[in-house]
């Protein structure tokens, strides 16, 4: 099974595998917050600073919850997809954590008083889609580099 824990449920890999340096994980975290901030800004059309702050807040919340949920997902996927190829395990893991991340981050934005609920959910779904494209590319590259 994949040995990388996704913080944010989505935010950036924090390696349980020491082969992935912490600075790489922190770099991904910053990149994802910026990408999601841009998307929030585009959907909200308010200040860039507030959009970036909201992206940071929602990702910090989902990061904390992501550590707990990632352990649950690893356990569940090991039970269900025990003999599946690593690529399928990774795909299912990314899809499940993406959906969880959208749910958590959408609720956070609603708590931050976003006016339009439909735009909130659209913005969070698009922002996390782009984040997960980055994470997926990174993880596929990491799996290949680590020969997993």
From the N-terminal CA to the C-terminal CA, the straight-line distance is: 9 Å
Strand order of the largest sheet: 1-2
Beta-strand content estimate: 5-15%
State the helical fraction: over 70%
Task: Categorize the overall geometry.
Answer: globular
Please give the number of β-strands: 2
Q: Give the averaged pLDDT, no decimals.
A: 78
Q: What structural class is derived from the secondary structure elements?
A: mainly alpha
Helix-strand sequence: EEHHHH
What number of domains? Answer: 1
Residue ranges: pLDDT <50 for 5 or more in a row? 1-7, 10-16
- Count, helices: 4
Radius of gyration: 15 Å
Q: Major sheet, described briefly? A: 2 strands, antiparallel
How would you characterize the overall build of this protein?
The chain has helices spanning 22-44, 48-80, 86-111, 117-145; strands at 4-7, 12-15. It is mainly alpha-helical. The chain has one domain (4-145). The protein is globular.
């Amino acid at each position: 099974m994949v040995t990388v824990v996704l913080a944010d449920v989505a935010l950036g890999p924090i390696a349980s595998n020491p082969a992935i340096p912490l600075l790489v994980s922190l770099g991904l975290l910053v990149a994802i917050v910026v990408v999601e901030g841009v998307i929030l800004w585009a959907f909200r059309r308010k200040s860039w600073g507030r959009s970036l702050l909201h992206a940071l807040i929602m990702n910090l919340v989902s990061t904390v919850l992501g550590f707990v949920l990632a352990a649950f997902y690893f356990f569940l996927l090991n039970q269900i997809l025990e003999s599946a190829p690593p690529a399928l395990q990774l795909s299912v893991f990314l899809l499940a954590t993406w959906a969880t991340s959208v749910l958590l981050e959408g609720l956070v934005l609603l708590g931050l008083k976003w006016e339009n609920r439909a735009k909130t959910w659209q913005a969070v779904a698009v922002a996390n889609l782009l984040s997960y494209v980055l994470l997926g590319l990174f993880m596929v590259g990491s799996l290949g580099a680590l020969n997993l």
